[in-house]
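Hello Y.,

Per our agreement to keep a running log of every chain we model this quarter, I'm adding this entry. I've kept the format consistent with earlier entries: sequence first, then predicted structure.
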Amino acid sequence: MRFRCPICGLDVDVPDDVISGEIVEHDCGAVLEVVMRDGGISLKPLEGVQEDWGE
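Predicted structure for the entry above:
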Protein backbone atom coordinates (compact mmCIF):
# COMPACT_ATOMS: atom_id res chain seq x y z
CA MET A 1 0.00 0.00 0.00
CA ARG A 2 1.11 3.55 -0.62
CA PHE A 3 0.32 6.63 1.39
CA ARG A 4 1.54 10.22 1.32
CA CYS A 5 4.12 11.39 3.82
CA PRO A 6 2.58 14.18 5.94
CA ILE A 7 6.01 15.85 6.10
CA CYS A 8 7.31 15.88 2.50
CA GLY A 9 4.25 14.75 0.49
CA LEU A 10 6.03 11.89 -1.29
CA ASP A 11 4.77 8.29 -1.40
CA VAL A 12 5.45 5.98 1.53
CA ASP A 13 5.33 2.20 1.00
CA VAL A 14 3.50 0.46 3.83
CA PRO A 15 3.20 -3.35 4.09
CA ASP A 16 -0.26 -4.84 3.49
CA ASP A 17 -0.27 -6.44 6.95
CA VAL A 18 0.44 -3.20 8.82
CA ILE A 19 -1.16 -2.71 12.25
CA SER A 20 -2.18 0.42 14.12
CA GLY A 21 0.69 1.92 16.09
CA GLU A 22 3.36 0.46 13.81
CA ILE A 23 6.32 2.74 13.11
CA VAL A 24 7.41 3.45 9.53
CA GLU A 25 10.56 5.35 8.53
CA HIS A 26 10.52 7.37 5.31
CA ASP A 27 13.35 8.37 2.97
CA CYS A 28 12.97 12.04 3.97
CA GLY A 29 13.98 11.11 7.52
CA ALA A 30 10.47 11.29 8.97
CA VAL A 31 9.43 8.69 11.53
CA LEU A 32 5.71 8.02 11.06
CA GLU A 33 3.09 6.17 13.07
CA VAL A 34 0.32 4.16 11.39
CA VAL A 35 -3.13 5.19 12.61
CA MET A 36 -6.24 3.11 11.89
CA ARG A 37 -9.65 4.59 12.60
CA ASP A 38 -13.08 4.22 11.06
CA GLY A 39 -11.77 1.54 8.69
CA GLY A 40 -9.18 3.89 7.19
CA ILE A 41 -5.41 4.05 7.50
CA SER A 42 -3.34 7.21 7.77
CA LEU A 43 0.16 8.24 8.74
CA LYS A 44 1.11 10.87 11.29
CA PRO A 45 4.46 12.11 12.55
CA LEU A 46 5.58 10.09 15.57
CA GLU A 47 5.33 12.04 18.77
CA GLY A 48 8.42 11.10 20.74
CA VAL A 49 8.39 9.95 24.31
CA GLN A 50 8.45 12.99 26.55
CA GLU A 51 10.96 13.29 29.35
CA ASP A 52 9.43 12.47 32.74
CA TRP A 53 11.12 14.81 35.20
CA GLY A 54 8.98 13.49 38.08
CA GLU A 55 10.84 10.18 38.33
